[in-house]
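Known limitations

Structure tokens in this collection are predictions and should be treated as such. Users comparing against experimental data should check residue numbering before alignment. To illustrate the layout, the record for Cyclophilin-like domain-containing protein is reproduced below. The input appears on top and the generated tokens appear beneath it.
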Amino acid sequence: MGRSQASFKERDAPQDGTRRQGSEQSRQPQASFQEPAGDGRQPGGISPEKAQEEEGTYRLQIIIGDQSFSAKLYENETARALIKTFPVTLEMSEMNRNEKYYYFSQEFPANPSVPEKINAGDLMLYGGDCLVLFYESFTTSYSYTPVGYLEDPTGLAQAVGNAEIQVSFQTG
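Generated tokens:
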């Protein structure tokens, strides 16, 4: 279910380099604009042409409990760097009842843009070190680097629940 920007709170890594721990902070939207993505489901709200251009052959399995979800990763520098860390199991935290996130201890290459819409199943990088798995769809004005998306996010929201969870990422 989409959320309006007025009622949607998002996290922010403070400018001083510290990370917020558990408290929600508002962040200022980036001054950026992207053309509407069209009518169909487009991962990360990018245009169909851009999605086709960026979609690579990287395949990923995301395992949550006893459920496995197939994902495709984009052919971009961020996905190539991130995939080098797989297989990995992450303890992902809950945020805003629409996403799970994990801060890595390392930075990844980032090329953030403002998606028109984030879709359930989108996998994105916030900043240079925060991997985010979205399980609800909504509009946003904040910047993320698209990494990939679940081919079928059906059942994802139920699988992740509303607490911290372990999520395994495996190539193949």
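For this record: The chain has one domain: 43-171. Residues 1-43, 46-55 have pLDDT under 50 and may be disordered. Please report discrepancies through the issue tracker.
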